[in-house]
Batch of 3 targets.
Target 1
Amino acid sequence: MGRIIDFILKWLKWPVAVFLLLSIPALLQSYDYFNFRSVKYYAMGCGMAVYVLMIFVAGYNNCHTMQVISHELTHTFFAILTFHDAGRVRINPDGSGGSMVVKGGGNWLITLAPYFFPLFAFFYMLIMPGLLRVSDGHWLVYGIFGYFIAYYWATVLEQVHPKQTDIIKEGYIFSIIFIIGANLYTTGMVLAFNSKLWEGVDLYLRLVTKLNIDNWHRVAGLITQNL
């Protein structure tokens, strides 16, 4: 099964990159539809601020080690999702990095997963609806979500650089297009989830699809007029 998925992903690699590249205008437009003047987003922002403060209090090295752990676990999670046998996760003793061996070679989705998928935030999203019901929508639930999102963004900003072996492996051009486009999608879905949970994510994806279609029709119309 893993080999079949690898084969499919191999042929989808550049179509996905092109789709994400063409979707960037719609993704940027979509942020205009959010109402950030609500308690939910204020609480989320406070949670993000707490993480930034923690970096200074706990020290950069401690936070960096946790980011490496998150990075390798995300590789492992996507290896399992794509039916691969993930080997042992190894974290360098000096906290400089880590490694995770995928038996069978793996695929580009496994390689770039840590740069677009907020692993810890995702698992929190699975229990967040229940926490909101139990707590009667307490602002702290949204604050914790913001903390995990800040953790993810800090990890991505720290680990995306020209010498990153994952990026070199998949190629700079593809990696840049994919990471930017995928993170714009991720950011929008996270913001939508913070507003209306999974219903918000569904509404957001519908919105981006509509904006994409409208933009592509507009561009096609302009090209047709100039022919």
Target 2
Amino acid sequence: MAKTPLLLIPGLLCSPRLFAPQVAALADVAEILVPDWRRAPLPIWDSWESAARWIVDLMPPGKFALAGLSLGGMLAVEIMQIAPERVERLALLDTGMRSQNETERAIRRARIRLADEGHFELVLGMQMTRFIPAYRLPDKPLVDEVLAMCGEIGVEIYRRQEELAAIRADRRPDLPKIKCPTVIVCGRDDAATPLFLSEEMAAAIPGSELVVVEQCGHLVTLEKPDETTAILRKWLSR
């Protein structure tokens, strides 16, 4: 049986480690590609379209399944603007489609300033409170894995990702145009992209399915790897 080409897009501060459990567990049904931001030319972050096109160009010709987490989910919906005919199914994990208000932009600028001034470790510590629920912070292997993943990205890529996130367009009006089978996944306790953002995406995308993962925060692929893999396996088999 032919395997499904599957593109998994990591989020802000996320290396391919984000999807390592799924890459291993879904290898029997999918040919998986995970973009590595460290290999991308820095100018891709000049616009949402340029980042989306760089990602699409990594895939072989033809249709593929598309999934993204957080910033990766936003980029997945950008891909739906430029190459919808190539996407046969879509999964949006712990993400949202709203634009940023001035307060949110100011917070992003403050984090960038801290990183630029040599306080990247402080920025990573701040991000941990958004990425991982407080009740999971004593889980040292999980926290160490997330810190290692974020540290791999580094200050320059992080800064460019934050700058791009600050100027993102409101994609909610484009969601009803999505016609492929779509699953939306969110951790119940996601502090970075709260559940209501997933609920409004599910309401806007025709025929989509919303799956809420209990006792889980923003990084569903790492916090609940087996449950996330099962969700994606079911989605791939539709």
Target 3
Amino acid sequence: MSDFQNILFVVEDGVATLTLNRPQALNALTLELMYEVQDAMAQIEADPSIRALILTGAGRGFCSGQDLRNRPEAGTDIVKVGMDCYFRAIEAIRTSRVPVIVAINGTAAGAGFSLALAGDILIAARSAKFIQVFSRIGLVPDCGSTYLLPQAIGRSRSLRMMLTNEPLMADQAVEWGFVSECVDDADLMASAGDLAAKLAKGPTRALAETRALVDGAEENSFETQFRRELEVNSELRVSYDAKEGVAAFLEKRQADFKG
């Protein structure tokens, strides 16, 4: 694995763990960090032995957002830099070929909140909290927040969070539906690890296709989505995992998926 400076990246038993590793700055995002995230995601795409990913933060917070001391120099094309750096990293997480579990410890703020929303399944420590924070500094939400958050919790709740900067605690995030589970702080990584291990044993191609279908559903008609489901299953049914899954079901045994 690469010698990263701003993240930790380890792989064990088919599960990769990507840890934002700037705890002295509450893991605030920098250009360098996000390029390293891109590199780590590229390693995952290239390594078929990796079958699930846990994304988390080092220290007492998940991510405090973008590091305002690490902004592009005056005259820089901010849109181009943001798309090349931040978008490519977050999109790589959203479209990863493996399931992505986000283990949220402490605060997820601003772009850190957006980064968390890019994952598939969010598990939060009981002390975790979520805050948009952008309007506090006179900016609009970015890094995908205006796309991802309304899809997760609806327009009204999203606008309340974005316009007021009111924090949302982990237990309420579960009630609102964008966090799947809230656990004691000491149990966070164990819970994420158990889920990752379970998913890593699954038919990872089918899992990725499931996510793609769910993500595309909002833009499709019911008929289009219905047809797309059939098309994807038509492609998958000739795969080893689909054949193994059917055989295991009929033989009443545990399937041995290969991904």
